[in-house]
Design a protein that fits this description.
Layout (H helix, E strand, L loop, with lengths): L2 H8 L7 H12 L5 E8 L3 E7 L5 E7 L6 H8 L12 H19 L8 E5 L2 E5 L18 H17 L2 E2 L8 E4 L2 E4 L6 E2 L5 H18 L6 H13 L3
Antiparallel strand pairs: 1-2, 2-3, 3-5, 4-5, 6-9, 7-8
Helix pairs in contact: 1-2, 3-4, 5-7, 6-7
Bound molecules: adenosine-5'-triphosphate (ATP) and magnesium ion.
Adenosine-5'-triphosphate (ATP) binds next to strand 1, strand 2, strand 3 and strand 5.
Length: 239
């Protein structure tokens, strides 16, 4: 690790602990990004930065805060996912698995659904494509579609395709959908679980309720009953 790359992260020493800074150095030395450009959002569990690579691509670096993460909530969401069985309720282990799960879910989802391409992960940090490049695309809540029917049709297909890949998003709402050129992109996949998770149907219903509620507020009606029955057909194939 060169001193030059270490220098780049010095300014964050009051924001992140030493372990996280080391993880950022490591990912940067592996050339997944060059330096952090600007904060995009400080979330409940994570800080999200825009960063640039040496080849001038823009990426999102999502950094879970080791000290202030609600890992008990994370644990309650991950323990019923059959892909992550036998996980102990220990802070760091849960956070690292949470990051791995986000990476894995993005990899699976991108086969059919528009999501950020996952690039790398290490410990509590995940790097992914920035939707919108140097100007990250807005959340659906801030960028209401010009054509509600067309957008909701695309959304339905994304949700159904996700189920057909064996996944339920489980944290879907106008906050975790980006509207990029009138196309929905799903983000924030750490909570997404296998359709074989005992809670999958309950999560799917909650996702649908959020979407239904969003469109209702905007004066547009979606056929959520039909959506649910179509998605159930996909889920049943896994049982
Ligand atoms: N790949 C991406 N491309 C563009 N913008 C993104 C991307 N990932 C995240 N963002 C922006 O950062 C915001 C927060 O990201 P995200 O939803 O993943 O984190 P969060 O809600 O803080 O997560 P958590 O609930 O796990 O703490 C998003 O709403 C979006 O505006
Ligand atoms: Mg989010």
């Amino acid at each position: 690790m060169t001193n030059v790359s270490k220098e780049k992260f010095k300014i964050y020493k009051n924001v992140f602990d030493e372990f996280t800074l080391q993880t950022l150095f490591k990912l940067s030395v592996q050339e997944h990004f060059d330096e952090l450009l600007s904060p995009v959002k400080i979330g409940k569990e994570s800080n999200i930065f825009l960063a640039e690579t040496k080849s001038e691509d823009f990426v999102i670096v999502k950094i879970y805060r080791l000290q202030s993460c609600n890992f008990n909530k994370m644990y309650s969401y991950i323990k019923s996912d059959p892909r992550f069985m036998n996980l102990k309720n220990q802070r760091r282990q849960v956070i690292f698995k949470w990051v791995q799960r986000e990476f894995r879910n993005l990899l699976t989802s991108r086969e059919k659904v528009s999501v950020p391409t996952p690039i790398a992960f290490a410990n509590n940090v995940i790097v992914m494509e920035s939707i919108g490049g140097n100007i990250p695309a807005p959340q659906l809540k801030d960028a209401v579609p010009t054509d509600m029917k067309a957008f909701s049709d695309k959304l339905f297909i994304c949700m159904k395709d996700l189920c057909s890949l064996g996944l339920v998003h489980a944290d879907l709402s106008e906050f975790n959908i980006l509207n990029y050129n009138e196309r929905p992109y799903f983000i924030d996949f750490s909570q997404s679980t296998s359709v074989k998770d005992g809670n999958a149907l309950e999560y799917l219903k909650r996702d649908l309720h959020n979407i239904d509620h969003f469109f209702q507020k905007k004066g547009f009606k979606i056929d959520s009953e039909r959506w649910l029955s179509e998605m159930k057909k996909e889920i049943i194939k896994y049982h």
